[in-house]
Amino acid sequence: MSKRQHKPDTLCVHAGVGRDAHGAIVPPIYQTSTFRFESVEQGAALFAGGADRGEGYIYTRLGNPTVRGLERALAELEGGHDGLACASGMAAIHTTFAAFLKAGDHVVCSESIYGPVTSLLGGLFARLGVVTQFVDSSDLAALKTAIRPGTAIVHIETPANPTLSVTDIAAAAALAHAAGARLTVDNTFLTPLLQQPLALGADVVMHSLTKFLNGHADVVGGIIVPKTEADWKLLRQTLNLAGGTLPPHDAFLVHRGLKTLALRMARHCESAQRIAEFLARHPAVDWVRFPGLPADPGYALSRQQASGPGGMISFELKGGLAAGRALMEGVQLAALAVSLGGVETLIQHPASMTHASMRAELRRQAGITDGLVRLSVGIEDASEIQADLEQALAKLPMATRA
Ligand code: 3LM
């Protein structure tokens, strides 16, 4: 029975879980680097392509049953051909670019994006002869102008890290395809529970598994899910050669985390909505970006292409950076830490932390102000998350309040 017919909440529990020979309900951890062949002939057949067709395993860098279970689960949830689990979200992004780009190619990339992606494209891939234009992808006219003959990839994050700006995925796909480019979408902030970019026209979707998908802040990992078999094969070849695969034990932990994804995302959305509304009406707050606020520029589009606003909020206090610093050091329940999407509430300062590697000029252009504070709303009691922020805001020195 195909699991694709199941609803997303059911898929979270059952996707990628096959029948175990011993009846185990939970897929076992195949903690092995290599696999025995029945014969020389069988080993040769697996090397000749049988392993990629699911006929058996060779060596864990090339495939592992525990990892394959997670890959299939994400492919089912995203509605793609198959998945590719990577050692980190950055490995997933790097593998995707390495698979599809060659010297002379042009890339158009959202300017508000996880900071190191700008260094990957603007540094490492620039050295290899790839030219990248960073653009406000939420502005379709600007996106259209940036795409040109020779554009091979349009890469977007939506909602974007850390500004939460929202890009129209279907429109971006149409623009990319008209120029013969692929649209690749980083879906880390919403997960397939809330947004399915492939169904909206994207060619490849990727995630940092480190965040909501695992959800428990104890694994670093990434995943790529392409729409087509041809792209999957190209990505598999690239990942096998580059070697940045996810270890089986980490795959097991992420697959376990996935089972509660629907419950966690519902809670993240509900609590973040409450916290965003609280911040928006607090006198010490200058502005708030959260796609669930009707006043947010991404509100209408978010309602159209996603089934929830997610758990991420960015905001700036009237007292700017000095007040933001005092707030980040004044919270007691929330932890001052980078990363996001775990059960714990985290607060951090993008300009000096997650986006410190970005050129200051690009940061400013992208709206990542020095005073911007990013909050990842966890699944603790929302009234306690609010009370924690309230007490920290109440302690702000008078000099930083206005
Ligand atoms: C962060 N982000 O705190 P890994 N795509 C998105 C991301 O947010 C991230 C990645 C990819 C953060 C990590 S900063 C030192 C900590 C939208 C990561 C990369 O390679 O698994 O970290 O994913 O914003």
Q: What does this protein structure show overall?
A:
It is a single chain. This protein is an alpha/beta fold. It folds into two domains: 3-258, Aspartate Aminotransferase, domain 2, CATH 3.40.640; 261-395, Aspartate Aminotransferase, domain 1. It has helices spanning 8-14, 40-50, 65-78, 89-100, 115-127, 140-146, 169-178, 191-194, 229-242, 248-258, 261-281, 299-305, 320-330, 360-365, 382-394, and strands at residues 84-86, 106-110, 131-135, 151-157, 182-186, 204-208, 222-226, 285-289, 312-317, 335-336, 346-348, 373-376. It has a seven-stranded mixed beta sheet with strand order 1-7-6-5-4-2-3, with helices on both faces. Helix 7 (169-178) links the parallel strand 4 (151-157) and strand 5 (182-186). The chain is globular, with a radius of gyration of 21 Å. The protein starts with 7 loop residues before the first helix and ends in an 8-residue tail after the last helix. It binds ligand 3LM. Residues 88-90, 114, 157, 161, 186, 188, 208, 210, 220, 222, 338-340, 354 line the site of ligand 3LM. Ligand 3LM is lined by residues 88-90, 114, 157, 161, 186, 188, 208, 210, 220, 222, 338-340, 354.
Please state the average pLDDT score.
Answer: 97
| Ligands (ions, cofactors included) | ligand 3LM
CATH superfamily of the largest domain: Type I PLP-dependent aspartate aminotransferase-like (Major domain)
Largest sheet: 7 strands, mixed
* CATH topology category name of the largest domain: Aspartate Aminotransferase, domain 2
